[in-house]
Amino acid sequence: MKTSFLHIAFLALFTSISAFAQEDISTTERYTAHNKGKLFAHWGGNRSYYTTSDLHFEGEGYNFTVENAQSHDLPKGWNIDYIKPGKLTSSQTNWKIGYFFHDKFNVSIGVDHMKYVMTQNQTAMINGTINLPLAEVGSQFNGTYNNKPIDLTDGKFLKFEHTNGLNYVFTEVAYYTDISSIFGISNTDIFQLNLTQGVGMGLLIPRTDATVLQKPRHDEFHISGYGFSADAGLNFTFFKHFYMQTELKGGYINMTDVRTTYENDHAQHHFWYGETIVSFGGIFRL
User: Fold this and answer.
1) pTM tops 0.90
2) Element (DSSP H or E) covering residue 41
């Protein structure tokens, strides 16, 4: 009798615990159901693309514009330098850290470390004047230029790069949409697919490698202009906390004061740009 009572009591306790567990499982929301209060950060790499731009150079004894200059980026491909201390900026990299102030909206700050290289192997039209002292280096280019073509290949007239780099330091507001259900994904705590869309603005702080008329370059970091951007992408989140994010990003950059030499010389140009970005990161609730 005593044994039967213990069996009945144990069965009742087990049934109660099971019922409570079932109720708890059915009423507990998934971790990925809400984003508000979560902090995220990611690091990745990019390929970048630029429209042509008019490069204007001004200094003591010269004032000229290279019309419709072509340019390109400087990719390294998949490389250990993306994660190697001391080498992180040798590649074209992106980082971002942000906070969800709403389930669908977040605010972030980040840096797009792009590389911009004026294509050396090109012939461009030059407009303006160069009137350097005859004993000064670069005076062989003295003259008045009126849509005159110049072959830039040897780099003696001009070399112009933002290779360390074209640094776009920005703040952004983004909208996230969980589209997992469209693909039949039910347990988003294991895998979740989000659509991301953002707009941002920021400053350009390049370290410019410019050799103008063979003058010594001045390649220190310098606030040189501003930019605006917009992006859209897919966020693949695994096991609640880890993700890969792919983005298409584009915008406008206006660099009004690019440092070129140790004198008061400077350059300016503006252009549209695009990026393809792949990043890896994590997301955790504070």
Assistant:
1) no
2) strand 38-50
